[in-house]
Design goal:
Elements (H helix, E strand, L loop, with lengths): L6 H11 L1 H5 L6 H14 L3 H6 L11 E5 L2 H17 L2 H10 L3 H7 L8 H5 L4 H24 L4 E5 L6 H15 L1
Parallel strand pairs: 1-2
Helix pairs in contact: 1-3, 5-9
């Protein structure tokens, strides 16, 4: 709601809750005034308090751990999950959204799992074709995610397919952490 307010209103609002911040912000800089209001209201601290904090907080070492499965297992999980979503009412939900006038919104936003079924409701695809399209798009998305994360050579990958049980996975995570400290 703040974006819709006038500069005068925003300046007055900031003056009430953080007069010190208002002194350091140009009165026409609506975005910074809004940000200062949001920070004060959200944290209880003024923006000037945050500026006084050390720029280099405690150093910490980041260890990235990625969990992965064999691709065929990922795809099996995706297929099962889609079937479960259908069973749990996804089609009814989409139908309801279409009836309420959200069909174009679903298309424009390209919401996975929704857009694949619009052709089914239009009569272009049968139900099996729509379900297979949803599964295919989800598998493709998973593949793109894997490709994206594989580019990060700092990630320590744990292939869940190589470990039986949670306790062995936790031991492997501990080993990686200890090795990288």
């Amino acid at each position: 709601y703040l974006k819709k307010q006038s500069k005068d209103f925003l300046c007055e609002e900031l003056r009430k809750i953080d007069p010190q911040a208002l002194k350091s912000i140009y009165p026409n800089d609506k975005l910074r005034i809004i940000r200062a209001i949001e920070i004060k209201k959200g944290t209880g601290k003024s923006i000037s308090e945050f500026k006084k904090l050390p720029s280099n907080p405690l150093e910490c070492k980041i260890i990235k751990i990625g969990l992965i499965k064999e691709r065929n297992l990922i795809y099996q999980n995706i297929n099962s999950r889609v079937d479960e979503m259908i069973k749990n009412g996804l089609l009814e939900e989409i139908s309801d959204l279409i009836k309420r006038g959200y069909k174009e919104t679903l298309r424009i936003k390209k919401i996975m799992g929704y857009t694949e079924f619009i052709p089914y409701f239009d009569g272009t695809y049968n139900l099996n074709e729509a379900i297979e399209l949803f599964k295919k798009h989800t598998r493709n998305y998973a593949k793109r995610q894997i490709t994206w994360f594989k580019k990060d050579f700092k990630i320590n990958w744990i292939n869940l397919s190589h470990f039986e049980g949670t306790s062995l996975i936790i031991k492997e995570i501990k080993r990686i952490i200890e090795e990288n400290i």
